[in-house]
Amino acid sequence: MDAIKLIADWDPRPGYALTPAERVSRKATMACKVFRHPHLERQQAPDPTPADGEVVVKIRNCGVCGSDTHSVETDADGYMIFSGPARFPCILGHEYSGEVVAVGGGVRNLVVGDLVTAEGMLYCGVCEACRKGWFNQCIRLDMVGFSSPGAYAEYIKVHEKHCWKLNGLAERLGSAALACEQGALVEPVGCSFNGMFVAAKGMTPGSHVAVFGCGPIGLGAIALARATGAATIVAFDLSPTRLDCALAMGADQALDVRSLASQGGSPSQIMREISDGWGSDMVIEAAGAAIQTMPEIERALAPAGKVVYLGRTGERAPVMLDILVSGASSIVGARGHAGGGVYPQIIRMLEHGVLDIGGMISHRMDLLDAAAAVQRSKTREDAKIMLVAS
Ligand SMILES: [Zn+2]
Ligand SMILES: [Zn+2]
Q: Is the pTM of this model over 0.85?
């Protein structure tokens, strides 16, 4: 089959001591510490065959993720920016959906012809974190498209325990193609859901919500906040396309932080204004720009407000922690989307028409043009680039 692989040199940074496990497995705990000079290549790969418990999915859609962008971008020394676990070379791509075309022995829930999307966090189910329900913190975690073969390819094999059916959604939409496109968005929106409703334990209807960063995670947060009864939603970004998408996903206001600053305004001022002075009950940081965002957030957090930190940055952020004491507020971090009812409940919301996320797709390209799509994503002008199998 055709597949788009990320290739990079195994060249640990000077001063970085590999762990014994990294030396044996060649899987880096943090890709940015080890992998250098990354590039994408279209190559032939063997067609996958399912082992017991596994199915093979013919890919119909795959979204381009910010992590894919980070894995081809490098710092001044040529090391990749992506900081998650990875073992390269690896077929990239993890936000996928498609049709089951082969079923291994002992598979109980899926048959050939089922439409599915699947979790990209391949948890073991055996370690203590998994058995406590913290699947995204699995100590043996593999990630589709980084340390396990991904979905920028014609086929992928996956254990049935990671798959969720889209048959009901296809029936409701009257279109397998539409269901698969929305199904491929469950992964990024799942990260927002996991942060807001599983890790931070949710918000009450009538809350004031602010979202920093209108990439897919921030856009997913906007759609979820609207669907679950937010009173107001204000969003901040720098890209005009992303700000338009924020409005389309349900934000009441979407503002360019730079033009706001040039007019002498600030996000915290807007957050106070839109909430009649009360402040934001829930703030989603999906910009990964903590140095700039945290000081603004702390100025406009409501009493008992929750900051859900989903952006990634290697830098330390200035935060006045006294807000957590005097405001009984909290900062909650989260990654991933496995467990917690995330996938089935998002699919259920889509099926019943209470969540609409298709509006975040700003561009479509052919699945096997994934390398060009990742290249395009570096401009950060698009909200979500969706790849479609021809
Ligand atoms: Zn992703
Ligand atoms: Zn585990």
A: yes
